[in-house]
Design goal:
By secondary structure, the chain is of the alpha+beta class. It has helices at residues 24-37, 105-116, 136-145, 153-159, 173-181, and strands at 42-45, 50-57, 61-68, 76-80, 83-91, 97-99, 120-127, 130-135, 150-152, 161-162. The chain is globular.
Length: 190
């Protein structure tokens, strides 16, 4: 576009508004608050177990050194329709896959234990500016049947359930649990 005095104005057409600066964890936490207020589900983010090593006292006590007590399992835990729910939120900048190094072996073992005891366990994955719910059963199946060090994006698109970003709640993952995970129906509809 030409302006008077031959000044040119350039427009940046590649503006990325994905999540508008909100982190995945924020979106999940706000969704969980919505679920609790509406009496839909009770789901909490578990605190990381830390042992206090050193405290300094100036105006108020401040922890200056701490140690992890034990390996943490998955970040979120709760109840929905009498079912135990345990899941984690993970993000990756990779466009082609989700690195399994982001899912620690003790977390994978915990995922299996929850499923073996009849609970619902899954990951909420952010990849390519999209958010998916990937059932723990599909994660376990992939790790047992593949030597890959990452879950390909095509597998996530095929097996995962896209969670659309909305308002109230931001990420309505309970709708996916109702439709696809409760009652053993973890098949995607074609």
């Amino acid at each position: 576009m030409k302006y008077p005095c031959k000044a040119k104005k350039e427009f940046n057409k590649n503006i990325n508004y994905s999540n508008r600066g909100m982190s995945l964890e924020f979106l999940i936490n706000e969704t969980n608050i919505y679920y609790e207020k509406k009496n839909i589900a009770v789901i909490y983010k578990k605190p990381t177990p830390v042992t206090i090593g050193k405290v300094t006292y100036s105006n108020k006590p401040t922890v200056t050194k701490g140690y992890f007590k034990s390996k943490s399992t998955l970040d979120y835990v709760g109840l929905y329709k009498g079912k135990y729910i345990d899941f984690d939120a993970k993000s990756t900048k990779s466009k082609t896959s989700f690195p399994l190094s982001n899912l620690h072996s003790h977390q994978l073992k915990h995922l299996k234990k929850v499923i073996n005891h009849g609970g619902i366990s899954f990951l909420i994955l952010e990849i390519n500016d999209l958010i998916y719910l990937l059932d723990g059963k599909d994660i376990i199946s992939f790790t047992q049947n593949s030597n890959r060090k990452s879950i390909p994006y095509d597998y996530i698109k095929k097996k995962g359930f896209l969670i659309e970003l909305k308002y109230n709640p931001y990420l309505d993952y309970i709708k996916i649990i109702d439709k696809h995970l409760i009652g053993g129906k973890n098949e995607k509809e074609n």
